[in-house]
Amino acid sequence: MYAVEFETVAEGKMIHIPDEYQEFESKNVKVILMIDEKDRSRGERKPGSAKGKFFMSDDFEEPLDEEIAKQFYQ
């Protein structure tokens, strides 16, 4: 196995392989995607996707103990 490197833009779910690599057409290839951080988007958010990952206690809206409340205003 050997590796080649090139840059391209993904169009939907398709990645264009440059003409100089036509030997790879209709072959099994291993693809590793490296995305520039500046181009990375958050992706689509789905309502309810965090369900069950955290909880809010029943006394969430109750006043804090004085000692704990003081730490917020130091």
Features:
1 helix; 74 residues; 5% strand; single chain; elongated; little secondary structure; two-stranded antiparallel ribbon
What's this model, at a glance?
9% of the residues lie in helices and 5% in strands.
Give a quick account of the main beta sheet: strands, pairing sense, barrel closure.
2 strands, antiparallel
Low-confidence stretches: none
Oligomer status: single chain
Bin the helical content.
under 10%
Average of pLDDT: 85
Describe this structure in words.
By secondary structure, the protein is low in regular secondary structure. It has one helix and two strands; from the N terminus they run E-E-H. It has one helix spanning 66-72; strands at 10-11, 14-15. A two-stranded antiparallel sheet has the order 1-2. The longest helix has 7 residues, at 66-72. The protein is elongated. 0% of the residues are buried. The mean pLDDT is 85.
How would the blueprint of this fold be written?
Elements: E1 10-11, E2 14-15, H1 66-72
Antiparallel strand pairs: 1-2
